[in-house]
Amino acid sequence: MAAPKAGVVLKAVKKIVVQFCPFESNVRSTREFLTRVGSEKARSSNMNCEVKAQVKHDRSQPVIDITFIDGDKLLMKGAHLTCAEMLSALQSRCQAKDPQAKETSKK
Questions:
Q1: How far apart are CA 79 and CA 63, in angstroms?
Q2: I need a labelling partner for 93 at 20 to 30 A (CA). Which of 9, 16, 33, 54 fits?
Q3: What is the longest distance spanned by two Cα atoms in the chain?
Q4: What are the DSSP calls for 25-65, one per residue?
Q5: Which region, left, alpha or beta, applies to residue 64 given φ > 0 means left and ψ of -120 to 50 means alpha?
């Protein structure tokens, strides 16, 4: 299943840390997620969002640790998730935390 074509909006995100071992067979979706959130278009939605990739060689499982502006955290283990599932989880949390989205829904 392909990831959604809509752009990623990182307004409510403070930091994203993506950890993976490139030699494992289950890191494809995690690397695709990193490509999506690290793209210029996604980064332009929040210039203060820090996106880090930690490439390890310890046969560890792929993990995505997202810290939101309000201090809340989202930890996703990417071994059994698709890129679309991870992006969907991130976007739903971002929309819930975005104050502008809340204002427009009230009108």
A1: 8
A2: 54
A3: 51
A4: TT-HHHHHHHHHHTSHHHHTT-TT-EEEEEE--S-PPPEEE
A5: beta
CA distance 98 to 10: 10
Give residue 63's identity as a one-letter amino acid code: V
**Per-residue burial over 55-91, b = 16 or more CB atoms within 10 Å of its CB, e = otherwise:** eeeeeeebbbebbbeeeeebebebbebbbbbbbeebb
- pLDDT tens-digit map of 13-40: 999 999 999 999 899 999 999 999 999 9
- Given this model, what pLDDT does residue 8 score? 84
